[in-house]
Amino acid sequence: MYQSRISGLGKYLPENVVTNKDLSKIMDTSDEWIQERTGIRERRHIRKGSEDTTASMGAAAARIAIERAGIQTEEIELILFATLSPDYYFPGSGVLVQELLEIPTCPAMDIRNQCSGFIYALSTADQFIKTGMYKNILVIGSENHSGGLDMTTRGRGVSVIFGDGAGAAVITREENPERGVLSSHLHSEGKFAEELSLIGPSTNRWVPEILEANDPSDESYFPFMNGQLVFKNAVVRFSEVIMEGLQANKLSPEAIDMLIPHQANLRISQFVQKKFGLQDHQVYNNIQHYGNTTAGSIPIALTEAWEEGQVKEGDLLVLAAFGSGFTWGSAIIRW
Ligand code: ACO
Questions:
Q1: pLDDT tens, position by position, 164-222
Q2: CA distance 330 to 123
Q3: Catalytic residue among 45, 145, 185, 262
Q4: Where is the domain boundary, 142, 174, 206?
Q5: Pair (156, 7) in one structural domain
Q6: What residues line ligand 1, using a CB cutoff of 6 Å?
Q7: How far apart (Å, rounded) are the C-alpha atoms in residues 22 and 25?
């Protein structure tokens, strides 16, 4: 069996910065409310009319990751694309990235696990590498939330939190058993599916039905979040799945050099930090600048931490996520 390691990282954020003050001009909210509850100061939104899409942002991040991995795009043998905001209802965005990167043919798969999408994709890549099936896998997390949010006061509980952006990682075969992804741990609990969801349009509620109803008060095509329930479950599941990962590797929390949590909400990250007794420099947070970019958040944060020199060879890295599904997961990595 082989190990897998992250050999290249990249990120892409749309240039359009939307501050809390900008939002307060179009809905009843304030910089103070948003910062106090979420830690977010600004996020990126694709500018209307721009050519950025979920797939194109993913491809832009991927080009950087592939270059940093020191390989050619033709060497990518599998694309795993995590998103909740694909370009099309079908096909998935993975095939669009394959075309944008001009890879003649290769398998491409979309992963539908929202905030946990990157961890699910990384874990899937790890399995394909371990069995020896592939040597280089491209894993992408990308989201275009802004166009689908309710940007009125009605939607403020959700829309102030989310931002657009993409991150990518090349996952490569590694011969050293002590390096790379040591383990990954995945979970879901579908009984909470509708507590953080976008129900319509879907096969449960097809577009013709929505058009026929022509009901402006219909909120089913905007994301819904039971914020307090999400918060309560997130802090428990984050802690559990980090502990599960550490125990699987016979490690204690003191072994953690850097925790990169899904950037859900600064208050959730701070809760987890306290629980594990970690110092500020051991937990990477950039939600202040990008908001919650769902499947994009971990690869964007990991890329930024690496670019800043905060991830060094030999470090023990813990990635952890919780989100819609509910789904949650962790990955323990020796860099
Ligand atoms: N600006 C101003 N006021 C607001 C806003 C806003 N953007 N949004 C909601 N409010 C108001 C509400 O209308 C409500 O007013 P009322 O008391 O007059 O009815 C008041 O603020 C309190 O609303 P709550 O929803 O109870 O606010 P809460 O303190 O729970 O904070 C939040 C909401 C930040 C979403 C919180 O529940 C939370 O942190 N939840 C965790 C979920 C989360 O972070 N999800 C991230 C995405 S999911 C994921 O990645 C896992």
A1: 999 999 999 999 999 999 999 999 999 999 999 999 888 888 888 888 999 988 888 89
A2: 9
A3: 262
A4: 174
A5: yes
A6: 29, 33-34, 37-38, 115, 156-157, 160-161, 196, 225, 227-228, 230-231, 234, 264-265, 267, 292, 322-323
A7: 5
